[in-house]
Amino acid sequence: MKRAVYPGSFDPLHNGHLDIIRRSRRVCDGLTVAVLDNPLKSSKLFTPEVRVGLIREATADLGGVSVETFSGLLTDYVRSNGSQMIVKSLRGALDYEYEAQMAQLNRLLYPDAETLFLLAASEWSFVSSTRVRELASLGADVSGLVPPATLEALADLG
Ligand code: PNS
Asked: Is the pTM of this model over 0.90?
């Protein structure tokens, strides 16, 4: 059984994330979406618990997907989760340097796990949580960028 972890901040979940979750399900038997809960860093928008709830809601129709928070080293979490793969998304060259560095370090820390890079779908390659937060805070319509659960939670923020 091949298990994978898709780690991130997901603050908030957007359509690009959801696409990666759907597509990575094709290459593993079970996927855990792991939301970073960093006690030293306050959330930019939603608490880790709210983010987990939003991802659960958006992935409720998908089998084999679980959602959890994690803290500390990703490789420790991957090991304890019994996973052999770390899923990451690359939107373009800007992501590459940052992600390649993390993948190399993670392989050093836990050689039994492989980082699997999925190229972001072209329609979502310009979407990031940072941009969604900025657009939403300025009153822009982000309904084309995020799943309904995220949209409702953003609306609730006022
Ligand atoms: O969505 P993000 O913010 O790009 O996700 C970054 C994340 C959570 C994948 C990364 O910060 C991470 O793995 N943090 C856990 C701490 C850790 O293991 N750091 C060493 C990485 S080499």
From this structure: yes
Residues with Cβ within 6 A of ligand 1?
A: 7-9, 36, 73-74, 102, 105-106
How many whole angstroms from 133 Cα to the centroid of ligand 1?
Answer: 19
CA distances from 26 to 14, 23, 66, 70, 88 (A): 20, 6, 15, 24, 14
Distance in Å, CA 73 to ligand 1 centroid: 8
pLDDT in tens, 64-120: 999 999 999 999 999 999 999 999 999 999 999 999 999 999 999 999 999 999 999
